[in-house]
Amino acid sequence: MKVYKKETVQHVNASIEECWEFFSSPRNLQKITPQTMGFQITDFDGKNMYAGQIIQYKVSPFLGIKLPWVTEITMVKEQSYFVDIQLFGPYALWHHKHFFEPTENGVKMTDLVHYALPLGFIGRIVNALIVKNKLKGIFEYRVKKVNEIFNSK
Question: Residue 22: which H helix or E strand, with range?
């Protein structure tokens, strides 16, 4: 299984408290996810993120086909980081770390994703042709939306 890595770093002009309040609420995921993904939370307990929390979604990454995706928040350190993993969904592996580091002018946010696709060699081809660029686009959209929310003040 080939494991890929995607890292995105962004500076946010906000306090660590404001950033954490926004990003620790699963309700805000839809605000920073492209509409083309058809992202919809189908089940979660309504609470801010905590270790052991299960969140269920539907996503449409390709051709409008709705796929179930279940993630678990495995680790949380308030105002510092949280980690989500896929329990069920389109990836063979999905491990996403979200880091928040206060700076003089706001917060440095780092997303670090390790992922793998099923189907061995075919998965590698699909990654090269589709998934790698799709993830790049999703995170570029996220950077844009976060800038609109926090950096346009």
Answer: helix 16-23
Query: Which parts of the chain register pLDDT below 50?
Result: none
CB-CB contact of 137 with 130 (8 Å):
no
Q: How far is CA 45 from CA 74, 76, 77, in A?
A: 15, 16, 19
83 and 75 Cβ atoms separated by less than 8 Å = yes
Alpha-carbon distance of 30 to 148, in angstroms, equals 14
Segment 121-143, tens digit of pLDDT: 999 999 999 999 999 999 999 99
Ramachandran angles phi, psi of 67, nearest 5°: -120, 140
Domains detected in the chain: 4-151 (3.30.530.20)
- pLDDT for 65 equals 85
DSSP element (H, E) containing 141: helix 132-146
